[in-house]
Amino acid sequence: MEIAAIQTPGTTLSDWAQTLELGAELLAEAAGRGAKLALLPECFWPAYRLPEPASYFAARAAGLPAPQTFIQRLQKLAADYHLGICAGFVDENETRLGNAAALIGPTGDLLGVHYKCFLWDFDRDCFERGNAIRPLNTPWGAIGLLICADARLPEIPATLAARGARLLLQPTGWVDVGGAAPLWNPQPDFLIPQRAAELGVPMVSASKWGREGDTTFVGRSLICDHEGHILEQCGPTETSIIVADVELRDPQPCQLTERERDVLMGNRPPISPVAAVPPIDLFLAPPQLSPEHALQSAEDHTPPEHHSLVLALPREDVADAICGEHGLWLCRPGTGPHLLGLIQLVSVDAGELQRFAPLRCHALGGLHLAVAHGSDTNLRSARCRACENRVIVIWAAPDRVTIIDTAGNVICDALWPPAGALLRRLESLDVSAAALKEVARGTHVLADRVPDQYAF
Fold first, then answer.
1. How far apart are CA 44 and CA 7, in angstroms?
2. Cα–Cα distances in angstroms (integers) from residue 272 to residues 155, 289, 391, 432, 448, in the given order
3. Are 446 and 364 in contact (CB under 8 A)?
4. Distance between CA 176 and CA 178 in Å, rounded?
5. pLDDT by residue for the chain (456 residues), tens digit each?
6. Are 193 and 177 in contact (CB under 8 A)?
7. Beta partners for 269?
8. With DSSP H G I counted as helix, E B as strand and the rest as coil, what are the percentages for the chain, rounded to 5?
9. What DSSP string runs through 118-145?
10. 59 vs 54, 55, 70, CA distance in Å?
11. C-alpha–C-alpha distance, residues 141 and 240, integer Å
12. Dist. CA 328–CA 296, nearest whole Å
C-alpha cells in the first residue's frame, strides 16, 4: 500500500488558518502521488508547543475553532480524495487538553483517536496522559497509533504489536536533544528502525521541522519496512512529502520468559540506581594474561577514587568473573548482576540485545551498565537498549569493543589487544549518568511505565 509521511514546519496558535490550508494542500498532493494513507505530524493543528493550557483557551476565545472543526475538515478531504488520513491535533475536554491523533478512513469515517501515553517534558504542562494502548480496526487491518515519545518506551509499541497491529503510525514532533549541531534525536537515528525490526511491522513517522517557541524540531520523517530498512526519509529542514509502497505484516510475537513477563507486567516500582557512583576505568585484557595479573595491573593504574573493570575474551580455563580489591575481571555472558563498588552491572549474551525484555528487567532492578558478549546482535539494537533504559552498554564482540552511552551514542570503538600485547586501558566511564532515568524534565523511562496498560 502506498503511504505518505508529510513533514510540516513549526507553527503557532495564531497561524491556525494557514496551517489548515497547508494541510489541505499537502494532503491533496499526497493523494495525487498515489498515496492511499497519509500521515501528518504530532499536534499538527493548531500547534504543539503550548506555553500552558490557558494560552490555548485564550486562542479559542479569540476565534480558534474547536477540534471537531479540524476533524470534520479532514473527514471531507479523506472522502474527496478517497484517502486515509492520520493527523496529530490538540483535543479538549472542558478545561483539559489531550495530545491526540485521529485516524480517518478513506470514506471519511473517524476510525478512532489515540492519546499520548508517555508525556515528554513540556507535554506535562498542558496535556492529560492517555490511558489506552490498542490498535484500531481499519479497512487495511489493525493499525496502531503512537505519538512521538510513546515510541521511547518499548512496552507501548510492543503492546500494539501483541494486540495485532500490522502497521504503526507515529505522528511526532522530534525535538532536538543533541545539544549542538547537527540537529539530532535518537528516534530517526536508530530507535524507530529498531522498533520496526524487533516487532516485524512497518512504521511510518511524520515529524515537524523548524521551531515552535523555544523548541527546535529535527525533521527527518521516515517510512520504515518491517525489517527496519528506511524506505524514504525527509531532510531536517524542509516541508516535504515522502511516499513508499509499504507491505503491512502480521507482527512477530514477543519472546518473553515467564520471569520477564512477571517483572515487566508487575506493578512494583523500579529500583533507583545509586546516584553517587565513582567512575570506572575500563581495560581490555589480551588472551595470555591471567585474571589475577590483569586485575592487579588494572588496579595499579586506576586512581583510588575509581574502580577498574577488565574485559577479556572468553577462556575455557577461567571462571566467569573474578573480583579484586577495587576491580572486576569479566569474560563470560550470563553472569551477574555484579556489584563493582556501588555500581551494578550485568553480563549477557549479545543475542539478548535483540529483545527489549532482558535489559529492561535488569534496568528495573537498578542496573547501571551491561556488558554484551558475542556477535549475535547489531549496533542499532545495542544503541536502542542503552537509550531506552538509560544504561551504559559495552558490546564485547569477538574483534572489537564498542561503548554506548545512556543516550545511545557510540563513545568508543576499539579493537581487542593482539596476542602478546600488554593490558590496554581503554576508557574512563562516568557511570553516574546511568543513575538518572529522566530523559527530559519529568520524563522518567522507568517510573512512567504503566503496566496495567500493557500486553505481551
1. 10
2. 19, 36, 12, 12, 13
3. yes
4. 6
5. 999 999 999 999 999 999 999 999 999 999 999 999 999 999 999 999 998 999 999 999 999 999 999 999 999 999 999 999 999 999 999 889 999 999 999 999 999 999 999 999 999 999 999 999 999 999 999 999 999 999 999 999 999 999 999 999 999 999 999 877 799 999 999 999 999 999 999 999 999 999 999 999 999 999 999 999 999 999 999 999 999 999 999 999 888 999 999 999 998 889 989 988 999 999 999 988 899 999 999 999 999 999 999 999 988 888 788 999 899 999 888 878 999 999 999 999 999 999 999 999 999 999 999 999 999 999 999 999 999 999 999 999 999 999 999 999 999 999 999 877 889 999 999 999 999 999 999 999 999 999 999 998
6. no
7. none
8. 30, 30, 40
9. S--GGGGGTEEPP----PEEETTEEEEE
10. 9, 6, 15
11. 27
12. 10
| Residue indicated by cell numbers 569493543 | 401
Instruction: Name beta bridge partners: 212.
Output: 215
The one-letter amino acid at 85: I
Query: What cell numbers appear for 381 in the block?
Result: 539494537
DSSP string of 304-341, one letter each residue: TTSEEEEEE---TTS-SEEE-SSEEEE--SSEEEEEET
Classify burial at 100, counting beta carbons within 10 Å of its beta carbon; exposed 0-12, middle 13-18, buried 19 or more: buried
392 touches 370 (CB < 8 A): yes
Quick check: 173 and 89 in contact, CB under 8 A?
Answer: no
Q: Which of 153, 217, 368, 390 minimizes the C-alpha distance to 279?
A: 368
Residue (of 310, 328, 332) closest to 319 by Cα position: 332
Helices (H), 3-132: 16-32, 53-61, 67-81
